[in-house]
């Protein structure tokens, strides 16, 4: 645990320098060999099998998806998992546009054709003119794009497609009010995944990988698609049943599959365009995400404030005194009563307090008028339902 003066942050992936610089060297040690870290900074490294040390107080994912992180198990330990909503959405949108164009204009196979040309061919011009006939495509304008998942990425994809002259239909049963407001009014609301697959010529998936979205596109609903349709998956491997998708391609139930997640099932399929998980790999997105999560992490480690955690409510309070206690607890009755009684018994006067909940998780920040002794923290931690307690005095 940090002594209030310095924090150790274990870094599991390559994180942009711009982000790491937000954790000043005087106060933070960052790197891949940090022992007993206070926090872990990660991109796509799979943490499910990792033994996450008891010292860890927070996880920061420099990106959007958190399916590589054991969020439920961390919640039980009162550990927030931060991410960077929207930090890489523009990068993904641009790659989705590239994917649509690559598929609609047959660009990968055209490129392979050109790479195979012989510079010594005396009839090169004629070979090219003959060859190009095989790659005639179609224009995106006036075709229908179906977007499944209208969050940060999906909304930008829908907007860009409308600007390209496409018709757009969208499906998202859990759309937030903010996301709904940010959608262009031309986006037609679809009734179901099936509605989208049946009626769109191009379908782009932008959902998180959850139990409910695993194999969202499967043999049963792939059958509804047009034989020349293009399916784009920049969400996650697992959202599409790849075995069923390959069968649909082979059975001419689907025209082309564009995705960011190559695997042995789809490699080298002539009508699959696969990229090596490049969606967020731009300088801009890498900087944005790293800066966002580094700042969120720093404010949490130093002040207990929570912004953009996927398993905690947003809770933020300006410092009212030098002595702050941050408590993560189960969202059950009488927690606040027990916390304030424990503090009162120790003679502590509460200066300011904020408590919020989100689902099963509640989080409380309490500023008190005098220093908190270790036995009080032990007593707070012993309250049934309290998951984590941190003492965050401002160092002199
Ligand atoms: N290829 C890459 O490099 C990247 C991939 N991603 C993937 O894209 C996903 C989406 O990213 P964002 O848009 O930033 O996240 P987001 O959280 O802003 O949006 C996700 C949307 O999916 C919706 N959704 C959830 N379940 C659904 C369902 N069953 N049907 C339809 N919609 C559903 C949610 O309501 C939400 O609006 C991420 O979770 C991640 O897996 C994100 C960024 C980069
Ligand atoms: O943000 C996401 O969900 C991504 O998939 C990006 O992954 P990456 O940070 O490039 O490993």
From TrEMBL:
What sort of enzyme, by top EC class, is this?
A: oxidoreductase
- Record Gene3D superfamilies: 3.30.70.260, NAD(P)-binding Rossmann-like Domain (3.40.50.720)
Matching CDD domains, A to Z?
ACT_3PGDH, PGDH_like_3
Q: What is its EC number?
A: 1.1.1.399, 1.1.1.95
Concerning InterPro entries, the annotation shows: ACT-like_dom_sf (IPR045865), ACT_dom (IPR002912), D-isomer_2_OHA_DH_cat_dom (IPR006139), D-isomer_DH_CS1 (IPR029752), D-isomer_DH_NAD-bd (IPR006140), NAD(P)-bd_dom_sf (IPR036291)
- Example GO molecular function: NAD binding
Record's PROSITE patterns?
ACT (PS51671), D_2_HYDROXYACID_DH_1 (PS00065)
Keyword Signal included in the entry's annotation: no
What is the catalytic activity of this protein?
Answer: (2R)-3-phosphoglycerate + NAD(+) = 3-phosphooxypyruvate + NADH + H(+); (R)-2-hydroxyglutarate + NAD(+) = 2-oxoglutarate + NADH + H(+)
Any matching Pfam family: 2-Hacid_dh_C
Top-rank taxon, per record: Bacteria
Question: Any idea which UniProt keywords this protein has?
Answer: NAD, Oxidoreductase
Entry keyword NAD:
yes
The pathway it acts in is: Amino-acid biosynthesis; L-serine biosynthesis; L-serine from 3-phospho-D-glycerate: step 1/3
Q: Which intervals hold domain ACT?
A: 324-394
- Function, in words: Catalyzes the reversible oxidation of 3-phospho-D-glycerate to 3-phosphonooxypyruvate, the first step of the phosphorylated L-serine biosynthesis pathway. Also catalyzes the reversible oxidation of 2-hydroxyglutarate to 2-oxoglutarate.
What is the similarity comment for this entry? Belongs to the D-isomer specific 2-hydroxyacid dehydrogenase family.
Full protein name: D-3-phosphoglycerate dehydrogenase
Q: Which organism is it from?
A: Ramlibacter montanisoli
Question: From which lineage does this chain's organism come?
Answer: Bacteria, Pseudomonadati, Pseudomonadota, Betaproteobacteria, Burkholderiales
């Amino acid at each position: 645990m940090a002594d209030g003066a310095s924090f150790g942050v274990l870094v599991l992936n390559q994180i942009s320098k711009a982000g790491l610089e937000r954790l000043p060297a005087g106060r933070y040690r960052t790197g891949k060999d940090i022992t007993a870290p206070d926090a872990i900074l990660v991109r796509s490294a799979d943490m499910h099998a990792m033994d996450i040390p008891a010292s860890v107080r927070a996880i920061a994912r420099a990106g959007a998806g958190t399916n590589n992180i054991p969020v439920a198990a961390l919640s039980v330990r009162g550990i927030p998992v931060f991410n960077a909503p929207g930090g890489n959405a523009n990068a993904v949108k641009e790659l989705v546009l590239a994917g649509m164009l690559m598929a609609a204009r047959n660009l990968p196979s055209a490129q392979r054709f050109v790479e195979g040309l012989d510079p010594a061919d005396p009839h090169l011009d004629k070979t090219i003119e003959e060859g190009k006939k095989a790659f005639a495509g179609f224009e995106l304008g006036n075709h229908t794009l179906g977007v499944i998942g209208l969050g940060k990425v999906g909304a930008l994809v829908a907007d860009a497609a409308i600007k390209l002259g496409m018709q757009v239909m969208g499906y998202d049963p859990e759309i937030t009010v903010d996301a709904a407001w940010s959608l262009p009014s031309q986006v037609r609301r679809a009734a179901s995944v099936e509605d989208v697959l049946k009626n769109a010529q191009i379908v782009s998936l932008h959902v998180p990988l959850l139990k409910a979205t695993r194999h969202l596109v499967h043999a049963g609903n792939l059958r509804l698609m047009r034989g020349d349709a293009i399916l784009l998956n920049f969400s996650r491997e697992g959202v599409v049943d790849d075995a069923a998708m390959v069968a649909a391609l082979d059975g001419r139930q689907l025209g082309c599959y564009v995705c960011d997640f190559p695997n042995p099932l789809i490699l080298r399929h002539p009508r699959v365009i696969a990229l090596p998980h490049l969606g967020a790999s731009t300088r801009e997105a890498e900087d944005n995400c790293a800066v966002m999560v580094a700042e969120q992490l720093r404010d949490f480690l130093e002040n207990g404030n929570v912004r953009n955690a996927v398993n905690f409510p947003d809770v933020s309070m300006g410092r009212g005194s030098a002595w702050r206690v941050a408590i993560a607890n189960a969202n059950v009755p009488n927690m606040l009563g027990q916390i304030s009684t424990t503090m009162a018994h120790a003679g502590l006067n509460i200066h300011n307090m904020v408590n919020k909940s989100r689902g099963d998780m509640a989080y409380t920040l309490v500023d008190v008028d005098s220093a908190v002794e270790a036995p009080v923290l032990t007593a707070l931690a012993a309250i049934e339902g309290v998951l984590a307690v941190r003492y965050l005095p401002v160092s002199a």
